[in-house]
Amino acid sequence: xxxxxxxxxxxxxxxxxxFHFRVWKETLQRRGINLDYNVYKDCIGSTVSFLMxxxxxxxxxxxxxxxxxxxxKEMKExxxxxxxxPPLIPYVKELLQNLSGGGYRMAVASSSPQSYIEKVTxxxxxxxxxxxxxxxxxxxxxxxxxxxxxxxxxxxxLQPGECIVVEDSExxxxxxxNAGITxxxxxxxxxxxxxxxxxxxVVEGYEEIDSAFMEKIYCHSHHLPAVICETxxxxxxxxxKEDIPRLMEICSQETSKDACxxxxxxxxxxxxxxxxxxxxxxxxxxxxYWSVLKKDTGEIIGRAGIEPKFWNKKKTVxxxxxxxxxxxxxxxxxxxxxQGIIQESVKRGxxxxxxxxxxxxxxxINLAEKLGFQKTDYHLExxxxxxxxxxxxx
Length: 394
Hints:
The chain is α/β, with parallel strands linked by helices. It has 13 helices and 14 strands.
């Protein structure tokens, strides 16, 4: 269960990497050293001590040169007085407000000094969202070692497996992976060409990120069933292997034979193929057929969802399908489930949804019309003559 979210600061909460490079470049220029960005970029996401090692290896600067650190801090203060703090990343405040409202514990785990973390979060009015502020200087090993993230999780009273890390650097993503924590990388072009390949997912902005999105990342990275949506009476979530016998029971009902989605494979085949289906359909495509549960009892009463399909070897579509236990038909559950899925599909940017219905299946045709689908003249080569294609415009 996701309980905590740990944020890096520089490049994730504030757009500070260009500022930091400028501070070091101008500081070293006073000593006649022209700092090459290709040298500096390897320290992004790590600590000042790690940068000092790079400066020692490339420019012969002593690891014990405390005067350089003093000069850097003076330059930093001078530039901040002139220009102010580096700006917040767009939509950071909205994201933090949403996650705070979701009840998550949150921490900053940054390679920056503790005093600077406190100044930045206080200045931008975001300190109140965080339970802990942790500096990489307070642990033995800097990123890409896991130390700072493990400390952040521990100080929030959480296990690493209960957290997500948000990072923008190669060092930070590797640190999260080394800590055994799911990482969502934020691609920040101002952080340089970072290899974010060790992150579970990469996003390019926060405007569409919320608690539900974080929960889905967490669930998928741990192979757990994510909630798709809720209606007044129903919970629609990804299937678990344990759901399959019940779903096969529903699909094998005599009255399910007219439902295209309800054509049942053998139980053994469904169970054997489930892990591959989950990995591909849920975790890669972010689609699939999902379990439909009554919220008041938790009983599985059907299966519904959307899947990508390739029609007539030339047309890629998103197809909606559903099946409801015959005991729960004519009570509005099919409409409620499909309506919830349509609304979720619209949120995800769908343009059209399609469904295939046998002409004798009057109940499904009536439902399609009620949902707003319209019959088309399109026909699939492998379908029987009585199979109709209906389309919904999102």
